[in-house]
Write a structure and sequence with these properties.
The protein is an alpha+beta fold. The protein has a single domain, classed as Glutaredoxin (3-Layer(aba) Sandwich). Helices cover 37% and strands 19% of the residues. The protein has a 5-stranded mixed beta sheet with strand order 9-8-7-11-12. A hairpin with a 5-residue loop joins strand 5 and strand 6. It starts with a helix and ends with a helix.
């Protein structure tokens, strides 16, 4: 009970702080619609080719994770509005199933503004075991830094990003209609391509230790 009260207090304090920041964020009305009506998105729009912005989220045990925790590997970020809705559920299950056939060096994460308790309950009910869900409900940093935070709702627009091991945004889709699913094939193809390039880069990196050993033997 004490832990629950402490968690609730942290959430209330953080949400108040996040709201103050949101008042100064740019607003975008041109990217996403809901039933044909424009949706106001808060935050800075990111572009393919730029460095992926950092963010803080929490897992189902309220442990803090940042973008740096996923550095050095190809990462697909699936942003959904709420796991309790049909399309978001389908999106999360689709990427979870896809992991079974993907290279081992890649990671897929789902981020929503659902509370960690709700995310954990969803994952247990739907057997989501190959990907990890994270909550943006505490600081709203992911939504603000990636231009996905829906104004006055605190929820995320639907989107998919693929980030390279060196933190470059190589793929971006912000789904234009909130109720529609993303282009899974295109996103997964981008993730696989980055994984393959990562393998090539790793194999072509000079083995410094081996070269030094050869030099010592020749002396």
């Amino acid at each position: 009970m004490k832990k629950l009260l402490a968690t609730s207090l942290i959430l209330l304090t953080s949400c108040s702080f996040a709201y103050d920041i949101q008042k100064n964020l740019p607003v975008n009305y041109d990217t996403v619609k809901a039933n044909g009506k424009p949706v106001a998105l808060l935050g800075n729009q990111i572009k393919v080719g730029q460095q992926a912005p950092d963010f803080r989220v929490v897992d189902d045990k309220f442990r803090v994770k940042t973008k740096h925790d996923f550095a050095g590997k190809p990462v697909l970020i699936s942003a959904v509005t709420s796991l309790d809705t049909g399309v978001c559920s389908l999106q999360t299950k689709r990427f979870n199933d896809a992991m079974e056939e993907l290279p081992q060096d890649v990671e897929i994460i789902t981020i929503s503004a659902d509370l960690p308790f709700a995310q954990k309950r969803f994952c247990q009910a739907e057997n989501i075991e190959r990907i990890t869900t994270y909550s943006d409900s505490v600081w709203r940093e992911f939504g603000m830094n990636y231009g996905l935070l829906i104004k006055d709702m605190g929820l995320l627009a639907r989107a998919v990003f693929v980030i390279s091991p060196d933190n470059e945004v190589v793929y971006k889709e912000i789904v234009s209609e909130l109720s529609e699913q993303p282009n899974y094939d295109a996103a997964l193809a981008a993730l696989i391509a980055i994984s393959e390039q990562n393998v090539i880069d790793s194999e072509s990196t000079p083995d410094t230790e081996s070269d030094n050993t050869k030099e010592d033997k020749n002396k």
